[in-house]
Design a protein that fits this description.
By secondary structure, the protein is an all-alpha fold. It is built from three helices and no strands. Helix 1 crosses helix 2 and helix 1 runs antiparallel to helix 3. The protein starts with a helix and ends with a helix.
Length: 87
């Protein structure tokens, strides 16, 4: 996931009014987009030299985040089931 943040920073480094101008801001921006706040960030994707690459990076990071979240959810439910059966 850190690589996706770094890639967004590199893609947007030439845009001065972008929310991804600093590595920490890129990390926070990707986190905010994972919560569903796309409208503030998506308009800047067309301003880059590589708009398709930025969209691919976003979809890769979001799919990875969703897979990890679902895996965590399944493991939590398995732990709860183990507690119910006193194993």
């Amino acid at each position: 996931m850190i690589g996706s943040f770094a890639a967004m920073f590199i893609i947007f480094r030439k845009i001065t009014d972008s929310p991804f101008v600093h590595p920490v801001e890129a990390m926070m921006g990707m986190f905010m987009m994972s919560l569903g706040e796309f409208s503030d960030y998506i308009e800047n994707f067309e301003k880059t030299d590589h708009p398709f690459l930025s969209k691919v990076n976003l979809s890769y990071c979001e799919s990875l985040f969703v897979c990890l979240s679902l895996l965590k959810l399944v493991l939590n439910f398995c732990g709860l089931l183990m507690l119910d059966f006193d194993i």
